[in-house]
Amino acid sequence: MLAARVINHRAARLLVAAIAIVLMSAASAQTPEQMAEYRARLAQYNAAREAYQVHAAPYWAAVKAKRAERFAKRRAHREITLDDYVLIQPPEYTGPKKPVDPSATATEVPVVADFLRHAAEQFDFTPDRPSNEIAFKRAYARVAAAAGLTKDQAVRIYGFEATGNGTYVVQAGLEYDKPDAMPITTALGYNQLLSTNTVELLAEQGGQFIDALKNRAAEASGARKAALERKIATLRKMVAFSHSVRDDWNLHERLAGTPKGLAVHALNLDIDVGPLLQTQKLMTSVIFARQRGYSAPLTAAELEMMNLTGDGNGLDMISLPPNLRKQVPTSNFFTQSGYEHNPVARRANVVSALLAATDAVMDRETQLQGAKDLAAQF
Prior knowledge:
Layout: H1 32-75, H2 112-123, H3 133-147, H4 151-162, H5 195-219, H6 222-242, H7 249-256, H8 259-265, H9 274-291, H10 300-309, H11 311-318, H12 322-325, H13 336-340, H14 343-347, H15 351-365, H16 369-376
Helix pairs in contact: 2-8, 3-9, 4-10, 4-15, 4-16, 5-6, 5-7, 5-8, 5-9, 9-10, 10-11, 10-15
């Protein structure tokens, strides 16, 4: 889980569009004139990018090399200093934008209805939905607190990820009720798990989730006990599916896009399993930091950096002492493509500014009723 992964629409305000999906389709066959114009504009773009890369490629090669050196030094428990970072800002591309191919077909992003349909078809599974939003918040707060997340971490990250008023079914791109709203990823819920996150969590922590349900079943009786036992049997099948490839993000991503993978993602809507998944996404980062010697309590903004950029890059960033955070460019923690597609990371171009921007969003969003309701459940 070390890949840099930006997971949702809220990241569009901070570490966005690395995963944004173009959803434009051709309404009809394109004319030769339109295609000729597109090819001419594409040639202009390619020429501008080639000229830009003459300066950019060496810079990003240096960033990559420095990052590899830091990771090696950290593994060897050697001191990391300011010299281990690239301290100048990257060259800026000012040429034309890449034109959109007018003949391109639409890329459709699955939505909640698709997750539910696949769950029924692939595993004969229908999530137990909460009676209301407060019920899910209560279940999530109970699991999160028991796992070790603080109220401040959980509520502020919920505010950042789910807009401060998001429901347990909120999906990236559909946070607001707008006529032209479209899903941009499969990111779902309070902490915006991608379908790949769900598959990976089942592969790595599936036994833990099964044990949690078994404990609940042992304390239940009657219809509730029988329902939990059926759910455990289904969860076992889903875990087995997630184990059908080796533990690798790219392989899990392929599984997550299949009907069975999308079916597994419906677990986030279940009152018993959803809070476990949403909590574990954050706890994985907390545990990662502890195991690598980062003993200081993570602020919500620091934990969000790990949640958004991946555990390795996030820890690399938050391990910076406060006095160095004002000097180190954010580019040190991104690939070239990821950085170029994240306007806020470019604007807040040193680590201290990026963390401050994250905190500012959290400050604002936690004033909304949804965040207040979640806080009340702790």
